Amino acid sequence: MARKAKRAARRPRPTPSADPKARLVAAALKLAAERSWARVTLADIARAARLPLAEAIGLLPSKTAILAEFQRGIDRTVLAGGDGGEGGARDRLFELLMRRFDALGPHRAALRSIARAAPLDPAALLCGWLRLLHSMRLTLAVAGCPADGLAGLVAIKGLAGLYLSVLPVFLADRSGDHAATMAALDKRLRCIQSLADWVRGRMPKTA
Question: Given CA atoms 180, 89, 154, 157 in this order, what sign does their dihedral have?
């Protein structure tokens, strides 16, 4: 209960922006929440953002670019909160990943629409995966976990897979305080830690 109260106090609050890129992102998310993302066009987004289409294309030339800008904004929000506080690596990763889910919370309806449309656009799906790997690399680095070399690559992909496994729980979470999301994330992080401890126990002492 104390952890929930502490996290609720840190939950980021969205602020309006006059920045044209932010307006395009906000318009895209609003339209995605109202209809299928597959039916939303760049012209629709520019119109909703009250920008000329040519200007919108010059700033963010595709829906994929708009989603990438949205992800960059989420990364900035996560990083602005610091390194995840005290405790072990699992606690810090829990805090950082929940900070990401908190930032995504106001856009849950839009994200559900985008997720349903994702299989229809393999190129956008690949770009989203690469952007997610970058986000997870930042998360590991901020948490003080290795994110370089072969071991770092394995950790990045593992954390991305863990995040994606919790994402459906988050999208369906109607608890208000993200209780179901927190429980799913905590369970998966504990499983990963148990596996890592087992692997370390099986390795030769010299390793």
Answer: positive
